[in-house]
Predict the structure.
Amino acid sequence: MTSTAPEDTEQLDPRRWVALGVCVSALFMTLLDVSIVTVALPSIGASTGAGPSELQWVVSGYALAFGMVPIIGGRLGDDRGRRRVLLIGIAAFVVCSALVGLAPTPGVLIAGRVLQGLAGGLVNPQVSGLVQQLFPQRERGRAFGTIGAAVGIATAAGPVVGGALIALGGPEHGWRLCFLVNVPVGLLALVLCARLLPSPPPRDTSRPLDLPGAALLAVGVLGLLFPVVQYDADHDLRLALLLLPALAVLAGFVGWERGPGRRRGYPLVDLALFRIRSFTDGTVLAVLFFCAYTGTPLVLALFLQEGLGYSPLQSGLTASSYAVGAALSAPVGGRLVARLGQRVLVVALGLFLVGVAAAAVLALALAGDVEPGTVAVAMAPALLVAGLGGGSVITPNQALSLAEVDVRGGSTAGGVLQTAQRFGNAVGAAVITAVFYASVSGAAAGGAGRQADYGRAYASGLTVSVVFAVAALVLAVRDVHRRPAGG
């Protein structure tokens, strides 16, 4: 499978950059809803009467549904037209956001969040597929850089935006604004995408969806993600037993795709994708890196709020240096990838490791000896460096992973890559928070001793993040010797 650049088949669309901006706004909306809800949970509980387990599912329901859909959504986009599936996804996301924002009971709220996650999972693979479709190879790094900036900002900006909306609407209605704000944004994106995105080329036949493959994949991914996500709430190691049937179902999916699905002529995932070394390595690197990248701000929030007594908004503002670093570096990484190739990932991962390690050392050195506010200020430069490194990984890895993929399967390949990222998010959050709470189990009742205990716990969690990032760095260094500097 080789990439087919747009200039090889058709004239470049002069509106492609404007169209990308609109697509990225829709993408940003779906990613923001992953993190914005975290600061809204206390208000949701007080307003709706939701208990701890129900509040956990407000978060987990979205994450699980979001992770199940990208590959299936990518296949639908490749076969039925990315513009059409993107519009359906945005429209569904708007409707579900309104349902969540107006939900009268916890049950309706959770159901709306699950449906919202399914809609968000439809949107994301279409954006990466459209980059493959609209942009020539020489411009894709910059285009993916725009996407990477959106990912970096959305990851850390959610708590800040959520805190501001709750302050604006008050404890009773503010949490509803966190979801209702998607309605006008989504409607505007829907109208602009309909006007700016090209219609799919005419096809002689409509390829049917591989329903058995889709069912096996959905059940397998759900079984893989559920115990990892649920561990955050229960901290019950017996949940790991659920991974065994999930792996068996995924093995059945691979067998189906290799056998009956391929013989029928329309497999859900063309397994030849994984014979493309750059795509396979990029997918593995995405899992490893997102284990480290997403878990880092999560344990920062636990350290600041539980250990130092910060409010959710104060915690979100402290993490903003991480988001700023990612937002600044993602476009730069996208521009450099065409010239430096895999070397960008090596430098970026090294920078990320330096920032995370410095944050761990500072937490150990300062947490027990200075005022809590001083700790956050002192750690801001280290978080900025980590963000600069992290933002420079996402964009180049996406561009390099998809560089050799045929544009006709770009959304499916993007869906695989995004499922890998979602799995990395879930594993990183579960493992790093487990280490954090295990380290803090003997925390002092209060005062400086408690701060020191939480500082050690934060450093322990970041050590796990470093391990994941080192594994990603080893893979990137190995790949440098295989690829030319420009690819």
User: Anything to note?
Assistant: Residues 443 and 453 are 5 Å apart (CA to CA). Residues 444-448 have pLDDT under 50 and may be disordered. The radius of gyration is 22 Å.
